[in-house]
Amino acid sequence: MKTILGLHQQFSRFDANLTEWGGSLLNLALRFYVGSQFFKAGMIKVGDWATTLALFHDEYKVPVLPPELAAWMGAGGELLFPVLLFAGLFTRQAALGLLAVNVMAVISYPVLFSYDCPAALNDHLYWGLLLLVLAAFGPGRFSVDEVIEEKRAGK
User: Fold this and answer.
1) What span, in angstroms and rounded, lies between the C-alpha atoms of 10 and 23?
2) Within a domain: residue 119?
3) What is the pTM of this model?
4) What residues form the membrane-spanning segments (predicted)?
5) Which class for 77: exposed (0-12), middle (13-18), buried (19 or more C-beta within 10 A)?
6) How far apart are the first and last CA of the chain?
7) Backbone phi and psi for residue 65, each to the nearest 5 degrees, phi listed first
8) Is 93 part of a structural domain of the chain?
9) Which among 16, 64, 65, 136 has the fewest CB atoms less than 10 Å away?
């Protein structure tokens, strides 16, 4: 019986390590995937600023904010938050920041709801769900947040 309990304990430790490291690898992949989607969008906005401003004036209906401020905030969020995600620095806050950018993009562009092909709206839904996962579970072991936490805990 002791042998069975000993084996169970060894497998449990192995399983816990596999889960911790595997989850961290998955979180790293999620951070890079979703961050790259927003970073590319931000680079496109900055790459043709005149068109970006025209879109925010004419197409995107951002509530409350003037179009110029909305353009700066949108492009800034799409460039800053992914960099934080890539590094795993302030990961939960960056994920929530990108979630806000994502939600604002959907709210501000009602044409997404009228397409015959819902792929664009589905993309925003998937990105939002991935960002919620990152906000809920954090960055995992492969992050600056983890290094800071280990230093703070004295490990």
Assistant:
1) 20
2) yes
3) 0.83
4) 69-87, 94-113, 125-144
5) buried
6) 36
7) -80, 145
8) yes
9) 64
